[in-house]
Design goal:
single chain; mainly alpha; 79% helix; 0% strand
Length: 89
């Protein structure tokens, strides 16, 4: 169920944002294919963080933006994963 929710989120929400900006969601997925496969196979984005930062800079996203957004997203994902594992008592 979690995987289906993630796929639906990417296709619906991210797809709508990309379409509104006249960008291709599947083009972005193809561009980040290697990083996505490593992140999915290792269950950790930390393994591909340097490559992801470089590729986002190639796309034209400024280094200050990448330097703030990507690490904070990784951090919040780690924290929420820990909270979810602890759960209510």
């Amino acid at each position: 169920m979690f995987s289906a929710t993630c796929i639906a989120y990417v296709l619906v929400v991210l797809g709508a944002i990309m379409r509104a900006r006249r960008l291709s969601l599947f083009g972005l997925i193809r561009f980040l294919k290697a990083e996505l496969l490593v992140a999915l196979s290792t269950c950790s984005i930390e393994a591909v963080l340097p490559q992801l930062v470089r590729k986002l800079e190639i796309l034209g996203i400024g280094r200050p933006v990448v330097g703030i957004v990507i690490p904070s997203g990784v951090r919040s994902g780690t924290v929420s994963g820990c909270v979810a594992r602890v759960g209510p008592r």
